[in-house]
UniProtKB/TrEMBL annotation:
Pfam families: Extensin-like_C. The keyword Zinc-finger does not apply. It comes from Sphingoaurantiacus capsulatus. Residues 1-17 form the signal peptide. It comes from the Bacteria. Residues 33-206 form the Extensin-like C-terminal domain. Coiled coil: none annotated. This is Extensin family protein. InterPro entries: Extensin-like_C (IPR009683).
Length: 206
């Protein structure tokens, strides 16, 4: 009973807190609770992956092999449980409504540069480990629509087509609602060709 009350209080607190506090409250992740959340998500098919320690600052814990998340995600690898839940949310509540609004079509494929990689932030030696080191991030390079259109962050972020430019900013802005940290071409040259989404402890949107 006391535990149930504590959870209710925690959930209420999380609902009132700002994004940064929410990120803090979300740590450490309650894996069982997160997996129960995944089981309730419509159209999601996944398998648990074995935990793996790949070094002092890299590895998998409670990672997910996403089998089906409603669209093809080319290049996806292992993904943390919270990232899987938020990616599902972003696809359904952010990306697809934006595609319908801007183009009257839906996304059928996301082109990703991947999720899990043992490397420092921005590939700079000496930096903190990237959230990719824990499969707690995804890099999105572009999408393909049902009408055959292909949209690329690199080519279209500052391209000529207004609807496409707005759509890419929709993807970024909707990412800011779903994930803790979002970095794109407006942040730095390292992100000129993709949107980086993660569920780490930093809270930013660029
Ligand atoms: Zn990234």
């Amino acid at each position: 009973m006391a535990k149930a009350v504590m959870w209710v209080a925690l959930i209420a607190l999380a609902a009132c807190a700002g994004r940064e506090e929410r990120a803090q409250l979300a740590k450490p992740v309650d894996l069982k609770q997160c997996l129960r959340q995944l089981d309730r998500l419509e159209g999601l098919d996944y398998r648990r992956l074995a935990d793996k320690k790949a070094g002092p600052t890299c590895g998998l814990r409670g990672a997910i092999d996403v089998r089906n998340i409603g669209v093809v995600v080319k290049g996806i690898g292992p993904l943390s449980c919270p990232m899987t839940a938020r990616l599902h949310e972003w696809i359904r509540e952010g990306m697809q409504p934006a595609a319908r609004k801007r183009f009257g079509s839906e996304v059928v494929q996301i082109d990703s540069y991947g999720t899990y990689a043992c490397r420092p932030r921005n590939n700079m030696a000496g930096s903190q480990p990237s959230e990719h080191s824990w499969a707690n991030a995804i890099d999105i390079a572009g999408v393909r629509l049902a009408d055959g259109r292909r949209i690329s962050v690199l080519r279209d972020w500052d391209g000529k087509d207004k609807a496409t430019k707005k759509f890419l900013r929709d993807l970024r802005d909707e990412g800011c609602k779903a994930f803790n940290l979002v970095l794109g071409p407006d942040d730095n040259a390292q992100h000129r060709d993709h949107l980086h989404f993660d569920m780490g402890r930093w809270d930013n949107c660029k």
